[in-house]
């Protein structure tokens, strides 16, 4: 009898040890199952409305110096929890965000190292899953070096995917839309030239990765709370349709230096059968820590213009003179011959300040104000900028006075040229200079090869640096808009002074050959998951040759699509990027940009299909105003706009800025019609949209 | 006739183009000849008193991205000059230094790149040669990346050499004495274990490299003014006895990032038929720029004791508790269990302050005062120290007050653990903390693997960092003593607040197994060329087991040899490294350390043979006091001490601290005799020296 009982107990405990653990989302649509497979390999699986989203997929981390966290595990504890809380972001698409999940925490122990354990924490929301590895404080685990993370996402089919080539240094690629099985064949053409790029696999892709299954499931994979860890890309096994995490190496090939207690970032899978749910998902933010900032009164959304597009188009220059190379502190700029095309002059900046003041803009960005632009690019120059020494024709104090007198801010510009040690050496001085001269926001840039050489834009070293710059900026009450930096992973919840990033092909590429007409119908499903983008739209003069006859590029949208972007490309930082003189020619269309809000009480996805079209409505924060934006790809269409988010029983005046009948992004981009109509919550509007076109509506 | 003239002119100009250019030293003993060899390859050659020192040797720099500077040159200009000036160092072995040289400046042009030229500048002193490459400002030369420098030193024979294995990260090897032809066979045994090391060749050696030819020429090769360039090691072609420069690579294998106008460091060859001339040579300093510091009153030589040897021997610990790992700002030290062996406690430091005050010492070094020592070593930990947060048992303010009340300084300690970005991030805060708390000198350290990973201690990146820390320290009027940093190259002329480096095996290695008995008979010929060493002598208790029974090491010198080191190992920073309680037991011998000066009007080499013995006398700065130190290797000897540097016609009292009759560094190290005698300028003293022994004399 004893022997039988023993066997039974062993069997039961064995069962328990291997027993699958499950949780569901609050609405029960999603089921997450964790279990150990043969050899004690941790796996998970995710279904949505009974369809497999992620098939049984392995988890694990391979290390260089201690026993890897890959197998030989047993489950020594499980814990479940529920959390439901509303929180208020400092800025955003919604006034209030609900953070509601069911959690499963598994503790896994490996016999091979006495008393060594890890935890994997799963949080299941109505809109998707987040999970991360945790390495708690314990006697037998301290330092370890990651060789590779092996988190798999086994997909249920050869999904349609919207992907960027996997790269350790840039995201400035056009999104490729294809089935996963086609990634390999399309990779070569997808890897267009960039000043600094490092692909890693013929089937490597970046996150956020957007996919759509044949049976209509929208699936987005990304990460949340990327702190002190290497950025995750994905490597596709295109035989089996399994994506696997691929971390960014450092200069010597290692992928992460860890000290317990610590954790990985969250790996996120957002899923829905409605495309709009992907756009509305706050899962990535919800997985980030609440902010500890006590005073956030200095963090405010910004609508701005800038001395920038005139340089991007080639009409003027960042550089002051034509020297081939300069040495800061040695080159006496006042003795050099100015090139006569410098953009950031006191007089020119004043014009922008006047324009901003006249039109209700908060700020003027000025690039090319400081010594060093003559040879900043492509030279891997260490001491490239000092961030405080202006050119002879840029009067810091006078412009501070002038801007302040008009209640306009100037946005500082810190192009680092990838020379990160140099930036950190100057950072306090540079921030102090900003405070002393009335600047409260900075656009930073990391164009080119990273110095220290061998490091990558997306490695742990730079992930650490970007956050260092942001947290130090907060000490000075400075807002940060970091270009060419890591794509956001919801950190703005914890650090709300991070008001923007680039980390994708922005409007500047319209001047570098053009973006695809469907570009901005994709970005909200990819790049904008995790944080806003400083896309800098608002180009009315779409033929760049009007500014610079040598530049044959043209913006691949109509004029009114540019207006729509202020609604469809959510950002607390919005630029009217074109030149003031152009806006003055189209004052009636420009009115929309003047009116549109940059901060919102709520957002509504009216129509959405990644790669095809978007129609979004938003309610301005604290106002009875709504704004609608609708865009299409290269195909004309008719949008169906509902207004059921308007308070019932009231009538509002809508101003509609739409493509003209014969508008076309290439042939007739500037054809538009502005009309007014009365709308109420029952109105349904059918609106024609031109190829590469869009429309914008303001409702008051 | 015309044709003939033309041919003649061409012939002459051709001759001129290839014609050797020569200069001599002011005393005509040295001749430097520059010429172009076939293919326009620049070469030089050096003779001393008609003996070849450097046979015809090639010069050149190979680049990665522009045409290399290797061949195809013609001489387009030569210029000669003479310079003769005395200058006064802030501290040193002499009050005044004469800088007297003849200079040859050749301008070399390569046809392959239009109008591109370089210069090579040769300076010939009575004690040797210095030369460097210069890249003047010009249209067709801006940025270039060095792949390797190919400066050769073709030697005239299989010289005896005193060498360290070539390494990009450490110099903490015992010097090997062998013929150059034996380097290859002895390399393996020479590369003893070090926490961070990177050898590069089976015949690679470091500089300063000391050699002695079979016909009695002493030759030393080093570099001067290493600024913003990669450190030079030497790779030996042991078939042909040619040494060639071997620069230190960065993380991606490149060896230097240059922007014209710029120059290489000076390559130096000190030569004499008198060993003492090597020790007296100021050539390396003379090649450095004069200081621009206006106020140097805050820079003063320092005699100090320290809470250090008790940790090196294992008697106490740097760490406060026994945790395996800590996280700064997270670990609450006040809640942890102290290990009871912490060295840097308020009470213990006060004992050292009392001892320093009682015995006329300027300062007390304290290591292990700050949070982070529990896991600082060998973990490649990024945020390892913050340089401002003391342990719970170290009261910063109280010790500041106490030290100041006794007119004693505390020397700050900044161990960086090789985590250089972390150090730079904290540098201003750390220096401000020093100023606020009465510290005016810091010992910094770079133990372990450099972070950013892939960089080396001796690469351009770190060379730049060390100088950054020194120049920033000067802004705060702080003196720097940098350990594990680059060996000095005379920069203390320009930056006199650099009062010390380690960059060799110091006294601590006596506790890590022992230094060779001839170690300090070599170091002045090698390590001390270019700058002083913080050797930290003065160990009276030579058996380490007396402090820590588990440590069987012993100091490989007699007690009085330790006294002699205060004279033979010149340094403006001198530590009495042993424990106060030990000095109190040997108060009579300790008197010499109390008396000996640390700054000098003049120095005299009485006897010198590298690797065998040294007898040096020095006159204290501004005083009628002289000090003599004499040391030997493992062989006993009789030193012959002259006193002809004493003013004539006066008699002085000399106190002689010498080995006892039966003294021996291993068997009887603490046997010594102190006696007095009268001396004058005509006295010649014969003094016996024990194996591994030495003696010291104070003359007043």
Automatic annotation (TrEMBL), chains A, B:
Pfam families: GH97_C (PF14509), GH97_N (PF14508), Glyco_hydro_97 (PF10566). Residues 308-504 form the Glycosyl-hydrolase 97 catalytic domain. Residues 599-700 form the Glycosyl-hydrolase 97 C-terminal oligomerisation domain. Residues 23-290 form the Glycosyl-hydrolase 97 N-terminal domain. Keywords: Calcium, Signal. Residues 1-20 form the signal peptide. SUPFAM superfamilies: (Trans)glycosidases. Its cofactor is Ca(2+). InterPro entries: Aldolase_TIM, GH, GH-type_carb-bd, GH97_C, GH97_catalytic, GH97_N, Glycosyl_hydrolase_97. The keyword Signal applies. GO terms for molecular function: carbohydrate binding. Monomer. This is Alpha-glucosidase. The lineage of its organism: Bacteria, Pseudomonadati, Bacteroidota, Sphingobacteriia, Sphingobacteriales.
């Amino acid at each position: 009898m004893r022997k039988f009982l023993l066997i039974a107990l062993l069997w039961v405990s064995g069962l328990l040890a291997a027993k699958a653990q499950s949780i569901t989302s609050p609405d029960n649509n999603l089921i997450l199952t964790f279990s150990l497979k043969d050899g004690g390999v941790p796996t998970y699986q995710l279904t949505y409305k009974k369809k497999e989203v992620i098939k049984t997929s392995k988890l694990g981390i391979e290390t260089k110096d201690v026993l890897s966290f890959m197998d030989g595990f047993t489950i020594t504890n499980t814990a479940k929890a529920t959390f439901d809380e509303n929180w208020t972001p400092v800025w955003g698409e919604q006034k209030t965000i609900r953070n509601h999940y069911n959690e499963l925490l598994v503790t896994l122990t490996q016999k091979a190292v006495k008393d060594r354990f890890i935890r994997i924490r799963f949080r299941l929301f109505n809109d998707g899953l987040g999970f991360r590895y945790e390495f708690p404080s314990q006697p037998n685990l301290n330092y370890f070096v990651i060789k590779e993370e092996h988190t798999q996402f086994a997909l249920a089919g050869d999904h349609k995917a919207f992907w960027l080539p996997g790269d350790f240094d840039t995201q400035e690629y056009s999104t490729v839309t294809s089935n996963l099985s086609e990634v390999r064949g399309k990779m070569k053409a997808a890897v267009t030239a960039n000043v600094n790029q490092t692909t890693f696999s013929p089937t490597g892709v970046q996150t956020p990765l957007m996919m759509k299954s044949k049976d209509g499931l929208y699936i987005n994979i990304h990460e949340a709370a990327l702190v002190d860890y290497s950025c995750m890309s994905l490597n596709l096994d295109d035989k089996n349709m399994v994506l696997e995490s691929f971390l960014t190496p450092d200069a010597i090939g290692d992928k992460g230096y860890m000290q317990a207690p610590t954790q990985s970032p969250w790996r996120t899978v957002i899923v829905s059968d409605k495309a709009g749910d992907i756009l509305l998902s706050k899962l990535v933010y919800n997985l980030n820590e609440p902010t500890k900032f006590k005073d956030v009164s200095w963090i405010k959304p910004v609508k701005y213009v800038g001395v920038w597009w005139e340089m991007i188009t080639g009409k003027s220059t960042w550089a002051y003179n034509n020297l081939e190379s300069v040495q800061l502190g040695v080159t006496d700029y006042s003795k050099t011959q100015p090139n006569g095309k410098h953009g950031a002059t006191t007089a020119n900046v004043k014009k922008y300040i006047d324009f901003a003041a006249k039109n209700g803009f908060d700020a003027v960005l000025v690039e090319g104000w400081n010594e060093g632009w003559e040879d900043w690019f492509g030279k891997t120059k260490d001491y490239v900028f000092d961030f405080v020494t202006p050119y002879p024709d840029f009067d810091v104090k006078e412009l501070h006075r002038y801007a302040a007198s008009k209640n306009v801010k100037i946005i500082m510009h810190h192009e680092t040229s990838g020379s990160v040690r140099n930036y950190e050496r100057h950072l306090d001085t540079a921030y102090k200079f900003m405070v002393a001269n009335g600047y409260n926001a900075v656009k930073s840039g990391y164009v080119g090869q990273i110095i220290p050489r061998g490091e990558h834009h997306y490695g742990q070293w730079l992930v650490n640096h970007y956050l260092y710059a942001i947290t130090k900026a907060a000490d000075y009450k400075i807002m940060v808009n970091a270009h060419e930096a890591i794509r956001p992973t919801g950190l703005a919840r914890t650090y709300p002074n991070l008001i923007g990033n680039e980390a994708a092909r922005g409007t500047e590429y319209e001047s570098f050959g053009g973006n695809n007409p469907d570009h901005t119908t994709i970005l909200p499903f990819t790049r904008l998951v995790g944080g806003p983008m400083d896309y800098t739209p608002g180009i009315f003069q779409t033929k760049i040759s009007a500014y610079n006859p040598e530049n044959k590029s043209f913006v691949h949208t109509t004029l009114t699509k540019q207006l729509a972007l202020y609604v469809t490309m959510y950002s607390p930082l919005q630029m009217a990027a074109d030149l003031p003189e152009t806006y003055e020619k189209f004052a009636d269309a420009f009115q929309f940009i003047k009116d549109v809000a940059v901060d919102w009480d709520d957002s509504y996805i009216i129509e959405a299909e990644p790669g095809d079209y978007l129609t979004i409505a938003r309610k301005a924060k604290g106002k009875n105003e709504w704004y609608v934006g609708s865009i299409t790809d290269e195909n004309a269409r008719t949008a169906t706009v509902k207004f059921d988010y308007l308070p019932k029983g009231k009538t509002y005046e809508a101003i509609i800025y739409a493509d003209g009948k014969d508008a076309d992004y290439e042939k007739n981009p500037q054809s538009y019609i502005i009309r007014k109509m009365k709308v109420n919550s029952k109105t349904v509007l059918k609106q024609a949209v031109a190829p590469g076109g869009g429309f914008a509506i303001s409702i008051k």
